[in-house]
Amino acid sequence: MLSRTADNLFWLARYTERAGNVARGLAVASRMAAISARLGDEVAEWRALLTATGGDAGFYRKYDAPSEEAVVHWLVFDPDNPSGILSCFEAARRNARAVRTALTVDMWEALNDGWNHLRQLSPGAAEGENLADFLGWVRERVTLFNGAAQDTMLRAEAWRFVHLGTMLERADNTARLLDVKHALFTPEAEGAVDYVQWQAVLRSVSALRSYQWVYRDRLSARRIAELMILRPELPRSLAACHAEVSDTLEAIAVGQGGRMGECHRQAGLLKAQLRYGRIDDILAAGLHTFLTEMITRTDALGSAIDAFYIRH
Amino acid sequence: MRAEDGVRAAYAEIERWLRATPREQLDRKRREAELLFRRIGITFAVYGEGGDPERLIPFDIIPRIIARSEWERLSAGLRQRVRALNAFLADVYGRQEILRAGRIPRALVLENEGFRQEMVGITPPGGVYTHISGIDMVRTGPDEFTVLEDNCRTPSGVSYMLENREAMLRLFPKLCARHRIAPVGRYPEELLQTLKAVAPPRAGADPTVVLLTPGPYNSAYYEHCFLADEMGIEVVEGADLCVQDEVVHMRTTAGPKRVDVIYRRIDDDFLDPEVFRADSLVGVPGLMGAYRAGNVALANAPGGGIADDKAIYPYVPEMVRFYLGEEPLLANVPTWLCERDEDRKYVLSNLDTLVVKLAKGSGGYGMLIGPHATKAQREEFHARILARPGDYIAQPTLALSTCPTVVEQGIAPRHVDLRPFVLSGKEIRIVPGGLTRVALQDGSLIVNSSQGGGTKDTWVLEDEGPGQEHPQSHSQSQSQSAGA
């Protein structure tokens, strides 16, 4: 496959996944803000979300304070935010348009219809009462795209680069969403935290119900961290995402007669560490330290993939 | 006359259908068509004019119909014309016999911008220059088609021929079923065969073919992707290709891969910054070296612009006679070259009846349509022609045929032209159909999509019209009984 095509496929999947994750983050933050409003610290939720999406520097250059209106506008419509939902859809479609021939019609329509709808929306369509519906719609579009890719793509290299993009982005996002709340996972916090906070963390990765199925017990910090980092059954856990990333890279290598490089080594190492890691060790060393390292290494892996397959 | 009757019968059927279909339903179908095109993403990119850069070319739901016998004549004429154009290109970049014989003025060719010195002495693989030709024509009378211009560089529009048919089949399946319409869907396969046929010999049985595009900002980018997809080949940009030791490779995830045939949709000027324009960012440095070494085929060959130049156009009938020893089957529009003293005198004193065009122009820009022009406009062209006579040609206004078209007020006749696509590889192939462009303004003769023209589906009928007996479908049993 053309290197440029692989690049476009990888990024269109990343941007699509990112749009979905920003919508998840927004949905949880808005729910939490509504709950904490009575305590008068709803701004903390919005501030945390900005940190998680990694765009706080850009935000504070344009806005004074993280009010709900400002954060929603920044994360949904603002063209200056490359990780905003509109920007993500636009970038995903731009990448898709450049590789129309490598996409199935269903994938293209999922992206193009979504983009056509989104660019015609007035900002009011994602405000106040409308926000929840809008975010639900974004998640539906992302699910539709993922389903279209899953259901219609030939299991060849094009599919693998799409899947690689989705999984790498998802690993990054889960680490970020968890890191926002890392303060909840210190030994001092145990017991003092509002149950609602735990629920919010799990909800951000659609894992509230899954938690009950896996542990059949009340929510605890240790288990939530274990579920989101190490449990292979949870499709958004770091372990699950990095296993997919590594396996997909292996599959690409097999398709090319075993050609491998640095990216395969890094991916394999991440997969193994998450496969055999222990949650108590991670928590003892500090969750924030661990997640920061994960985010950095996921980023480095992205660069290694780029160096090996794209810009050689 | 049978062709005329067939087309009339076919239109009569369409007319019955139009009369039976309420206006609201037609409008609904029009909106559906637009939605369909928008959804599939068939757009025409217009950058730098403000507004939505991804525009739709208006699609008219009433098809344009050509009778079988009319098509037979037409395609015979097209084959002849394209054979002559290819022979001309091989000649002017080779022995230049037509110039030596004095049949075309030497200076007109050798001093023409379309003539590429870089191509002299190169014999392209298979000896073919214009692999894909789009011949623009108008119907000027019963069984008479006149060529407006030839396109031997990178003609576009074939995706509309294919997608317009798809749209008609989806929107009006019953209407389509009532006619025996020659299918056009084979075009991509025929194109791929044509491209493979001109691969360098060492490429072997399964040559690697790619489509080279200037990128997503090109107005025909959708078409590039569409065609590549249909053929199952890669769409590459200049940066995806690199030349090493006079061999072209594309950058793939598995490392460099050798390329044998390039269907290029980039103008000559931008192909190779080492040979043509040095500031080209979309080309491939070293490409012409690989081409000269015979390691890669380019379709169309560089330098084809000399064959479709508007100043050379009047000589195409002469090419047919010179190279093929035949009389041209397709008519040319009488053309005056303002460069020639006598022609210029005639043009200047007849500006109110003539159409004046830029010899190098395309897209319907910079034209004077005498009968519709104001006195001031005619005076402006008078001055321009005197200042740069070599830049202008003039032609009489033609009695273009019209086709019923859906407009604001209802159904009205609008002028149409036709661009069939002629493929030249080992043999010449023409898919029965083409791109019909329609001038949507009342009385307008300009059909270019950049000037508000639209398109129609083009139906070449397999028989002489619907709603009557189909002698063909009974013929087998008849011949069997005759033989028994």
From TrEMBL, chain A:
Any Pfam family hit: Alpha-E
InterPro entries xref list: ATP-dep_Glu-Cys_Ligase-2, DUF403
Taxonomic superkingdom: Bacteria
Domain annotation DUF403: ranges: 1-309
Protein known as: Alpha-E domain-containing protein
Protein's organism: Roseicella aquatilis
Lineage: Bacteria, Pseudomonadati, Pseudomonadota, Alphaproteobacteria, Acetobacterales
UniProtKB/TrEMBL annotation, chain B:
Location of region: Disordered: 446-484
Domain of life: Bacteria
A Pfam family that the UniProt record links to this protein: CP_ATPgrasp_2
UniProt source species: Roseicella aquatilis
Segments of skewed composition (Low complexity): 468-484
Name under which the protein is recorded: Circularly permuted type 2 ATP-grasp protein
InterPro entries: ATP-dep_Glu-Cys_Ligase-2, CP_ATPgrasp_2, UCP005522
UniProt domain Circularly permuted ATP-grasp type: residue ranges: 63-439
